[in-house]
Design a protein that fits this description.
Elements lengths: L2 H11 L4 H33 L5 H46 L2 H4 L4 H43 L1 H48 L1 H6 L3 H53 L5 H42 L25 E8 L8 E8 L3 E6 L6 H8 L7 E6 L2 E2 L5 H7 E4 L10 H5 L8 H10 L3 H6 L17 H14 L4 E5 L7 H14 L4 E5 L3 H6 L2 E6 L2 E6 L1 H7 L1 H8 L31
Parallel strand pairs: 3-8, 3-9, 6-7, 7-8
Antiparallel strand pairs: 1-2, 1-4, 4-5, 9-10
Keywords: ATP-binding, Membrane, Nucleotide-binding, Transmembrane, Transmembrane helix
Membrane topology: Multi-pass membrane protein
Protein name: ABC transporter ATP-binding protein
Amino acid sequence: MTDLARWRDLVRLARGYRRPILGAAALSLLGTLLALTQPLLAREAVDGAAAGSLPWPVIGALTGLFAAQASALALARYVQAHTGEKMTRDLRRTVTVHLLRVRLSALDDGRIGDLIARACGDTAAVKTLIAQSLGTGVAGVAGLAAAIVLLGWLDPWLLAAVVVLFGGSFGALLAVVRRVRIASRAAQTAEGLLAADLERALGGIRVVRACRAERLEAERLDTSAGRAYLANLRMAGMVALSGPANDLAVSGAFLTVLLVGATRVSSGAMTLGELVAFTLAMTYLAAPVYEIFQAVSAVQQGSGALHRINEVLALPIERDRPVAVAPVRGATRRTVPVLEFRDVWFGYEPGRPVLRGVGFAVPARGQIALVGPSGAGKSTIFALAERFYEPDRGSVLLHGRNAAVTSYARHRAAVGLVEQDCPLLAGTLRENLLYGAGPVSAGELRRVLAMTGLTTMVAGLPDGLDTPVGDHGRRLSGGQRQRVAIARCLLSRPDLILLDEPTAHLDPDSELALAATLHEVSSVCALVVIAHRFSTVRSAGRVLVVDGGAVTADGGHDDLVRSSPFYRRLAFAGTGEAAPPNHPVPDSPATWAPLPAARRLSG
């Protein structure tokens, strides 16, 4: 990342905050100019006192200048801090909104903890960049120029000695800050990895505890913390080197001015008041030099954070295509399939297709079961139906139109999804049920609760619908989470509901109740269910068999038992039931043994 690119990114970031940044710079410059006026008045006060008369008006003016300088600098710092906080809020809003729209294929390649660190920690680092680079940096340059002019007017010979000392120190500082950028980028990356490892451990804390892996995760986190410690220590060391160089320059210049100035006063080349004025002005020279160094150092440290933020903002997002689509002539929503796959090919990695020419249509009503072994592509079909990914070849149609020309919001309003692990969000049960559903009447909410068997559960909760469900819904059982997820989907009133193994966490009684619910729901909208349990498959009006990334059979349960040997094996292997006459069942692997509560298909 070149210096020009860093400054260009910085200017682009600060474009919307020009007025407060320029205001802070103006206040800082005003404080510097007020400070540089003080040596001139001090000269008059010292020369007057040396002559035997104390100039009280001059002393009063000095007191007023001190107060005005302090007020200007305090106000400048507040404006800088306010601007930095506002910019951080806006930047975090931009990053988080972008992250919520990033394509899942891009998120699959990253670590969530590192992205969180970029949205939180790196944006805070950029705040320091704005507060210490643009406002103070500009004011520092102007103040340095004014101080040099004043010192040259007071005594050019003493100024030459000061320039030599400060010039060497400034060169050393620039050499240090070049290394600060590299150390800062490494430190921020290490912090991001630490956050990612911590999110990994806490996100799977139940697995960690169940596998007795607390020590293993502690060691992993300790290693990440050690990397962050060393990276931050290197950066702190680079910054620490700048302090002695600046202090040495100030001390050396001060001593030089006193020695040479005393000689010039004794020879009559300058008065004592002029020496005091020059010494006081020289002390004010250190402030703009320090501000310039702080600005350069902040750019070096913040450029790494800004680069990491720009990497997030460069991730591709879901963008709707503004395409006008003509209505389907001579068709209604009842006659046109709600969802259709036409020769769909897709792979998560180039050259490794997961789906191979998948084609099927889902009518506007009824229930379809999707069966097949694990890894056959069932969940991938759901991911494409929900438009989490786009096909590599072929097309997905919604209500007879290519889904690619439908907005993501409109498509997902029509296609609801209930995932197998049924993730819930931290908050109350009511918030989870109504999440994304829009206005819902109390009567409709009660009806859906009854349909999904949640009425009794809600009545038993301490605060009813306002009971917190915990992080990821962990205060509820697996079956309860599943029913809540189904109810949430029903409250959104979609045209099609995708259910990934809805009976996985249900007991036999709840499974029977859910089957009745699905039958009722299928009379008003379409259902596609990834099914492993035999009872779920038999209740579906149509079955799609998926194997090797393709739909290998399509039909009713009884028809497929007669026509598809592969489906027969899935349906009857290990169940203890006799296969239909004249259709022997192939040897069944032990992994296809039935569940205790219900017969189970492979997968």
